[in-house]
């Protein structure tokens, strides 16, 4: 006989544990299923371990720049990758065991370990066990895309997950993909001491960003000695005596890049292909994502999809917000919706990029009249004091409503500074609210009101930029 529960949660990523707590606190009997590691991508192969390693890379980079601050080091800076990995493993492991202990100690919650599979719309199997519930929540996350490229099956390649297991510094790391994951690992391993080449098939890094953001990031990374090949389609791999060769179809540069290791960073795919979704009648799209409505409900009543597998965000914070939306609707009679949230994310190169709302290009495409403000980090006192003046901040405002449409901060502290703008956007108040705020000196945030006091029509700025490029 199947074991009956009020709710079944498949996966212990960011959405799962919080939702389990909310449901059990409401008196529900909950089963939560984990196939492998508690905590999902963020805890094990994503945010926590990678940002721990980014911190180690930053320490090495700052140590090499010590003389710029009047600090003399007795010896050359060296990176002990085994100790870097050990620190990462300890911090990540602590988070993983913490999530597991939390769930196992949660009243009214039963933890199952194994591969979950739908037997019907109301029944899930875990090994020999059969579980039933009127509410089922899918929170299975995603994994790296492995493209079908000639010769890939003949070499040993890395993904964001297997990169976490390296205990040495590659001599020459070839990275296929010039977006968030590729750039973070690229700068990280360059600072650890690797030679790094990034192959990006498009004309610019991070295609979704504005051109000025992409160009500035390119300058930052090339300034650290990273080789970046744009308009470079990787068409195949082959083994070499020392490692691997990537054949590249490109306009400029050599048609082959040789290195010692290859990292594939060309995107993510949802972990939905082995859940037996067809047995429950749950629809998926061409990429394997589970379509959901504005409150995360799937095509089957009583089944929800949260986190990376629903294609609604792909970030830790969007996954957690999914669980808040579901809990609010089910338990609080609060009709929260996915469409209520403002897109926001960060790129954790150094300096980081914090982004909220629309890009400049997206605002232009809307056709609405807008204002724009921009300030280079060279004119931010706190950045100058820290010796970290790369980047800029930019904001776009609706000229009719005076509400902020979007912003980015590419510079020291950008991942934190962006939140003061984001909060004003959620409040749906005019930009003058933050412009007139008194911010603390000396900080990066204090220049946000200054930038907002220097807004000009978006079209005028574009016209001036065109004139400068044409020499008029």
For the residues shown, what is the average pLDDT? Answer: 95
Please compute the radius of gyration using only Cα atoms.
24 Å
In quaternary terms, these chains amount to single chain
CATH architecture annotation of the largest domain: 3-Layer(bba) Sandwich
The first-level CATH class of the largest domain is given as: Alpha Beta
Structural class: alpha/beta
Q: Biggest sheet: strands, sense, closure?
A: 7 strands, mixed
How many β strands by DSSP? 22
Number of domains: 3
Number of helical segments? 15
In CATH, the homologous superfamily of the largest domain goes by the name FAD/NAD(P)-binding domain
Please report the distance between the alpha carbons of the first and last residues: 81 Å
Question: Low-confidence runs (pLDDT<50, min 5 residues)?
Answer: 463-472
What percent of residues are in strands? 15-25%
Q: Approximately how much helix is present in the residues?
A: 25-40%
The CATH topology assignment of the largest domain is FAD/NAD(P)-binding domain
């Amino acid at each position: 006989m199947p074991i009956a529960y009020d709710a079944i949660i498949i996966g212990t990523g960011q959405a799962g544990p919080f939702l389990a707590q909310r449901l059990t606190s409401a008196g529900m009997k909950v089963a939560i299923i984990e196939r492998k590691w508690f905590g999902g991508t963020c805890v094990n192969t994503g945010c926590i371990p990678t940002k721990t390693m980014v911190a180690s890379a930053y320490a090495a980079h700052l140590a090499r720049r010590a003389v710029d601050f009047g600090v003399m080091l007795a010896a050359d800076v060296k990176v002990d990758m085994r100790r870097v990995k050990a620190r990462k493993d300890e911090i990540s492991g602590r988070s993983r065991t913490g999530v597991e202990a939390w769930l196992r100690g949660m009243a009214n919650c039963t933890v199952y370990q194994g591969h979950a599979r739908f037997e019907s719309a109301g029944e899930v199997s875990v090994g020999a066990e059969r579980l039933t519930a009127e509410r089922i929540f899918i929170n299975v996350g995603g994994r790296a895309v492995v493209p079908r490229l000639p010769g890939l099956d003949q070499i040993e390649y890395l993904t964001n997950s297997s990169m976490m297991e390296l205990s040495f510094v590659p001599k020459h790391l070839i990275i296929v993909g010039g977006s968030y994951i590729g750039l973070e690992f690229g700068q990280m391993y360059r600072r650890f001491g690797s030679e790094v080449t990034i192959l990006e098939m498009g004309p610019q890094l991070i295609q979704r960003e504005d051109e000025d953001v992409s160009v500035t990031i390119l300058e930052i990374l090339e300034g650290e000695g990273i080789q970046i090949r744009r308009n470079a389609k990787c068409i195949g791999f082959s083994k070499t005596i020392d490692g691997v060769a990537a054949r590249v179809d490109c306009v400029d540069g050599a048609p082959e890049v040789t290195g010692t290791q290859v990292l594939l960073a060309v995107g993510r795919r949802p972990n939905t292909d082995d859940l037996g979704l067809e047995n429950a009648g749950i629809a998926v799209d061409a990429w394997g994502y589970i379509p959901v409505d504005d409150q995360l409900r799937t095509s089957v009543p009583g089944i929800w999809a949260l986190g990376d597998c629903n294609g609604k965000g792909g970030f830790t914070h969007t996954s957690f917000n999914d669980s808040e939306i579901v809990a609010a609707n089910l338990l609080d009679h609060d009709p929260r919706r996915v469409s209520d949230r403002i897109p926001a994310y960060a790129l954790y190169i150094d300096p980081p990029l914090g982004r909220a709302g629309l890009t400049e290009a997206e605002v232009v495409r809307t056709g609405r009249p807008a204002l724009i403000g921009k300030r280079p980090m060279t004119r931010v006192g706190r950045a100058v004091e820290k010796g970290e003046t790369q980047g800029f901040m930019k904001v776009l405002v609706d000229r009719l409503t005076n509400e902020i449409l979007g912003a980015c901060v590419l510079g020291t502290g950008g991942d934190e500074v962006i939140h003061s703008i984001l909060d004003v956007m959620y409040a749906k108040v005019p930009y003058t609210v933050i412009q007139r705020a008194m911010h603390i000196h000396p900080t990066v945030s204090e220049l946000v009101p200054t930038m907002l006091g220097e807004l000009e029509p978006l079209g005028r700025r574009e016209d001036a930029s065109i004139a400068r490029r044409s020499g008029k």
